[in-house]
UniProtKB/TrEMBL annotation:
Keywords: Hydrolase, Membrane, Signal, Transmembrane, Transmembrane helix. InterPro entries: AB_hydrolase_fold, Pept_S33_TAP-like_C, Serine_prot/Carboxylest_S33. Belongs to the peptidase S33 family. SUPFAM superfamilies: alpha/beta-Hydrolases. The keyword Signal applies. Residues 492-592 form the Peptidase S33 tripeptidyl aminopeptidase-like C-terminal domain. The chain crosses the membrane at residues 62-83. This is Proteinase. Residues 31-54, 95-118 have a biased composition (Low complexity). Residues 1-10 have a biased composition (Basic and acidic residues).
Length: 592
């Protein structure tokens, strides 16, 4: 059964500089010389581990602790709206997915590629990048792991110009005799650290996968330890959370848009040229350089959350170089604004309903025992918070409003292990206090109790990446009218989402234009997996990506939360392992 108490790290008196995340993850001896972090997404004991459904493991999805998907900002901060792509073209016929994926043998990682550049699949102008040598050395925090750096051009159209230096971390295959090659991983965000993701490889992948693959994580360009672009100040980030997300008058709306537009302009000015080159399309090109430097003929890849967007872009750009690719908790690069809204509603409502069903069965449920009235109580709470706020004991945040409260509620839906925290936080909020909810929100974005955000917070990457990856929002009157109807029909979702607008309208460069056609023609089977009740990357988007990929294979899990593989569903784990180890994909549409 699910532990009835919040994790200590979710509470406001956590003994660290951040409300929940420790300032450094200690690496005492373990399978890879590390133990799971005590931050969001992890349980620290069997009693705290089970989910609301039988079979949920204590090994919680690492996606929620290492990186937070961009959709949380779409839904909770109400400042990141995906634009409206052009009308979707008629899809090309799908290539039936075979049940056997391509073999993935590879030479020793780090072997420089030699010979004719054209024969190796890259232009001669990029030879300096594709032929550089990776100098692996023991990582400072774990001698069993290897760390290295590589260089890529800031602008691929100007390969002789400035460069990004990317940080890499490799957890070598534990059984060299079974080694199949490298498995490049990305936890999403955008802004999540793949280096940190690889640090906990033993808690993210099964022993069998760890035996067969060098798990390689990297910090994408401009993020983490990879020539970081830090374009937001602490006050900028606080402004995003303190702004009223549900303006009730033209004046309030003008203030909201002015604040967000100002943050976007300041980010562009501080980030400069490098901030203009943090798109997922460019990161996909970086991954192809990495593939060659690792010595792999094809890219084997595991992407979670926004990392599925990266995997899909790579597969569409380099379909013939796709090896075994797993996209967990997915979203499609072809999503339209209308589709995203539909998926958001479905994902949020299914997740909040699951929490309410769990809560009302308890004697101490903050929402009472009436499932039908529970949602309205949250609506009423948010309306009261908008008017009066909640008091807290945090210096500099003695009162918080809808921004922090809605964000924190949403983050508690990422994993059923945070449901007790949400229940306690709501109970406290009904008394006018917000310490528990604020502690949860601060932990996710790594805001210190003195108001300082960790340099590695994913928020630093949010604007440059999202503004590059998506087209500008449409002002189509019919779409605006549909949004208003949706908000009226779904009042709790409307308050959680807030004002629907495009915060990238003052960004100086254009966004990506989606293809609107079938993706990755010619690639081998790509396994797309997701939970039926995922608030962050709703199952609708996961299903769409599986359809949009020419060789997509869909596998769904009848569970709650964000992150599917190695999260306690043995059926999912077996299917993913069978695909990664033997190239055998499950039947399309399988449900676990």
């Amino acid at each position: 059964m699910l532990n009835e108490d919040p994790r200590p790290d979710d509470l406001p008196d956590a003994p660290t500089g951040y409300a929940a995340l420790p300032s450094a993850y200690p690496p005492p001896p373990g399978a890879d010389g590390a133990t799971p972090p005590a931050g969001p997404g992890w349980s620290t004991g069997a009693a705290a581990a089970g989910g609301a459904r039988p079979g949920r493991s204590w090994v919680r999805p690492v996606l929620a602790s290492v990186a937070v998907v961009a959709v949380i900002a779409v839904v909770a901060l109400a400042v990141w709206r995906i634009g409206n792509p052009p009308p979707v073209a008629q899809p090309q016929p799908r290539t039936p997915a075979s049940t056997s994926g391509p073999a993935s043998p590879s030479p020793t990682a780090g072997t420089p590629t030699t010979g004719n550049p054209a024969a190796q699949g890259y232009p001669a102008a990029l030879a300096a990048f594709y032929t550089q040598k990776l100098d692996w050395a023991p990582c400072s925090d774990n001698a069993k792991h290897r760390c290295a750096t590589m260089e890529v051009p800031v602008d691929y159209a100007k390969p002789n110009g400035e460069r990004f230096t990317l940080a890499l971390r490799k957890a070598p295959a534990t059984d060299p005799a079974k080694r199949l090659g490298s498995l490049v991983i990305n936890p999403g965000g955008p802004g999540g650290s793949g280096v940190e993701y690889a640090q906990y490889a033993s808690f993210v992948f099964s022993p069998a996968v760890r035996a067969a693959y060098d798990v390689v994580g990297f910090d994408p360009r401009g993020i983490g330890a990879s020539s970081p672009v830090r374009c937001l100040t602490d006050s900028d980030m606080d402004l995003l959370f303190s702004a009223d997300p549900t303006p009730d008058s033209p004046a309030e709306r003008s203030t909201l848009l002015g604040d967000v537009d100002g943050v976007t302009k300041r980010c562009a000015a501080r980030g400069g040229e490098r901030a203009m080159h943090m798109s997922t399309t460019e990161v996909a090109r970086d991954m192809d350089v990495m593939r060659v430097l690792l010595g792999d003929t094809k890219l084997n890849f595991f992407g979670g959350s926004y990392g599925t967007f990266l995997g899909a872009i790579y597969a569409d750009t380099f379909p013939e170089r796709v090896g075994r690719m797993v996209l967990d908790s997915a979203m499609s690069p072809n999503q339209t604004e209308q589709q995203e809204m539909t998926y958001d509603i479905q994902g949020f409502e299914s997740s909040i309903d699951a929490f309410i069903a769990w809560c009302v069965g308890r004697s101490d449920c903050a929402l009472g025992t009436d499932r039908a009235g529970a949602r309205q109580k949250i609506v009423d709470l948010l309306d009261a918070v908008e008017k009066k706020g909640l008091t807290t004991s945090k210096p500099g945040l003695t009162t918080i409003g809808e921004g922090w409260v809605g964000f924190s509620i949403f983050m508690c839906l990422y994993s059923d292990s945070s449901w007790p925290t949400l229940n306690k936080g709501l109970a406290q909020a009904f008394t006018g206090k917000g310490d528990i909810l604020l502690a949860k929100g601060m932990s996710v974005v790594e805001r210190g109790i003195t108001g300082d955000y960790a340099p590695t917070t994913y928020l630093q990457a949010m604007i440059p990446v999202r503004c590059a990856d998506w087209p500008r929002a449409s002002s189509d009157p019919s779409l605006v009218a549909e949004q208003k109807r949706a908000q009226a029909a779904h009042p709790l979702w409307a308050r959680m989402t807030g004002e629907l607008y495009d915060n990238c309208r003052t960004w100086p460069t254009a966004g990506r234009t989606p293809k609107g056609t079938t993706l990755a023609q010619g690639a081998g089977p790509i396994l797309v997996i997701g939970n039926e009740r995922d608030p962050a990357t709703p199952i609708g988007g996961t299903k769409q990506l599986a359809k949009d990929l020419a060789s997509g294979v869909l596998l769904t899990s009848d569970h709650d939360g964000h992150g599917t593989y190695y999260a306690g569903n043995s059926c999912v784990d077996s299917a993913v392992d069978g695909y990664l180890l033997r190239g055998t994909a499950p039947s399309d549409g399988t449900t676990c």
